[in-house]
Amino acid sequence: xxxxxxxxxxxxxxxxxxxxxxxxxxxxxxxxxxxxxxxxxxxxxxxxxxxxxxxxxxxxxxxxxxxxxxxxxxxxxxxxxxxxxxxxxxxxxxxxxxxxxxxxxxxxxxxxxxxxxxxxxxxxxxxxxxxxxxxxxxxxxxxxxxxxxxxxxxxxxxxxxxxxxxxxxxxxxxxxxxxxxxxxxxxxxxxxxxxxxxxxxxxxxxxxxxxxxxxxxxxxxxxxxxxxxxxxxxxxxxxxxxxxxxxxxxxxxxxxxxxxxxxxxxxxxxxxxxxxxxxxxxxxxxxxxxxxxxxxxxxxxxxxxxxxxxxxxxxxxxxxxxxxxxxxxxxxxxxxxxxxxxxxxxxxxxxxxxxxxxxxxxxxxxxxxxxxxxxxxxxxxxxxxxxxxxxxxxxxxxxxxxxxxxxxxxxxxxxxxxxxxxxxxxxxxxxxxxxx
Length: 436
Fold this sequence. Notes:
Layout: H1 2-6, E1 10-11, E2 17-18, H2 22-43, H3 48-51, H4 57-85, H5 90-120, H6 124-140, H7 142-153, H8 159-163, H9 168-200, H10 209-223, H11 228-240, H12 250-253, H13 261-267, H14 270-278, H15 288-292, H16 314-328, H17 341-350, H18 361-365, H19 369-372, H20 391-399, H21 406-412, E3 419-421, E4 424-427
Helix pairs in contact: 2-4, 2-5, 2-7, 4-5, 5-6, 10-11, 10-16, 11-16, 16-17
């Protein structure tokens, strides 16, 4: 039964695998102590990948060593406590096995997460939060099932030999629950990514923008050692921060020249539209405030609400900096020549405390260039609708051979004259304003 439960493990998001073989191994511990538990864990936990030799020998050896150590330790705890109480009947026996099961669980996954962290380079807390924390309730729920299996197996007249295999059914349903969880999470993440790509696909100049903002923001969060739940929220908000541009008409969104006052007011509504789009989705409710406030300024002169400083959510302050850097170092129809890394960092530092949180700007500045540098564009990755040339290239290029334009000049000059933005306080338009 352990072998049946282990043949089809479920791979979790951070790379660890989980199987329902935990239940039968624990039942073996209850029936035969550490020797039986270790023996079943050694020979009964092969999965299909190992049998097909898709896992290197040292990986197989490590996996089985971890399981044997956990099972033997659980058996020692079970027998020690059982010996001190002198009885295994009824509730006492269940409590003893539950204690052994918790020991098995903790040792198994502490070792697994540590090894996985060393192998993948992911933080220990990241793997625990993304994988083990989620499946823990289901794993611990196998403890009563293991106790019941052991009780059924000891029934007289050979009844246990044919009754115990019936537990394959609840084991299978538990494995199915793991699989459904992984599928649901993958679908959720793919849907968010598809929505972000749908926004970026309207314009070849912003293709990949949302993914890069999310990637840079996540890297900043990890440097700041934020909790994993907060990192995940900011990462998803980064993917969806511009989803409100779906509600901005093309004549404004794709305009190569400067926006007039009415067009600027319409553009400044995209954070509000984005919040309205995601808020009805219960899983995205925490991301909605970050989407709404990602264009707020630290000094309160941003939009749409004019909030300032620490009244702006931390995630939004991180996104603002990542968004600004990515926009400045990318080509735009109004600024065909991107700013260099040094120029963009200069803008961030110059307006630290004005547009950007002065305590967070150094976090981005200190990131590795491998994270910050934009990978070269690949034509074959463009959506079909963007395969043709962009007519704005010609119009922009004809007026500014160097790739500039009136709009680019206004945005590249932080000292440009103040501009009224949809009822918000006057402030200069900066190179870091991502308005298209």
